[in-house]
TrEMBL record:
Disulfide pattern: C131-C134
Residue ranges constituting the Carboxymuconolactone decarboxylase-like domain according to the UniProt record: 98-173
Record gene name: ahpD
Organism: Hyphobacterium marinum
Protein family per UniProt: Belongs to the AhpD family.
Active site: C131 (proton donor), C134 (cysteine sulfenic acid (-soh) intermediate)
InterPro entries cross-referenced by the UniProt entry: AhpD, AhpD-like, AhpD_core, CMD-like
Keywords: Antioxidant, Disulfide bond, Oxidoreductase, Peroxidase, Redox-active center
Catalytic activities: N(6)-[(R)-dihydrolipoyl]-L-lysyl-[lipoyl-carrier protein] + a hydroperoxide = N(6)-[(R)-lipoyl]-L-lysyl-[lipoyl-carrier protein] + an alcohol + H2O
Protein name from the UniProt record: Alkyl hydroperoxide reductase AhpD
Catalytic activity, EC: 1.11.1.28
């Protein structure tokens, strides 16, 4: 399935999502790897089959096999970390924040792509999953790597639109 086919599956009431998918696909503040890795990581994170299939196919045309693997790894590890760190941040007892997570996170140290790209994809997924603590951590790392606020915002906009597309398609399938 292509990006155009995905847009065609959206009902008329979701026209803004169609328009946003188109404009984000043409986004120039991110290079192709950052942009399509963000699309793929977000689609993987939301897990809606049609959204994932279309965006994986489209991303595959712009990403190396290593970048595809890294984008999926960002989604996978953030799926775990976002739940854990959201818990430590939201629970009233503060002692959980100082306890070691004791969760394997090797993908963060050795992502197989440029560290800034992986961090950006982790930011995208953390925004989709709603983990403020993780977003703060990734945003700080991205700034250290010279990633601009506009680039971070673009990745989060991608995550927001992909999440909304997936939600609409899930609701329409119900």
């Amino acid at each position: 399935m292509s990006l155009d086919a995905l847009k065609d599956r959206l009902p008329d009431y979701a026209k803004d999502l169609k328009l946003n998918l188109s404009s984000l696909a043409r986004e120039t503040v991110l290079d192709e790897q950052k942009k399509w890795g963000a699309f793929l990581a977000a689609a993987h994170a939301v897990g809606e089959p049609a959204t994932y299939a279309a965006l994986a196919a489209e991303a595959g045309e712009h990403l190396s096999p290593e970048a595809v693997t890294a984008a999926k790894a960002a989604s996978a590890i953030m799926g775990m970390n976002n739940v854990y760190y959201r818990f430590t941040h939201m629970v009233s007892a503060k002692d959980y924040r100082t306890m070691p997570a004791r969760l394997r996170m090797n993908a963060l140290a050795n992502p197989g792509v440029d560290k800034a790209d992986f961090e950006l994809w982790a930011m995208t997924v953390s925004a989709v999953n709603g983990c403020g603590m993780c977003m703060d951590s990734h945003e700080a790392e991205l700034r250290k790597h010279g990633v601009s606020a506009e680039q971070v915002q673009a990745s989060v906009r991608i995550g927001a639109v992909v999440n909304a597309v997936a939600a609409v398609l899930r609701a329409e399938a119900a």
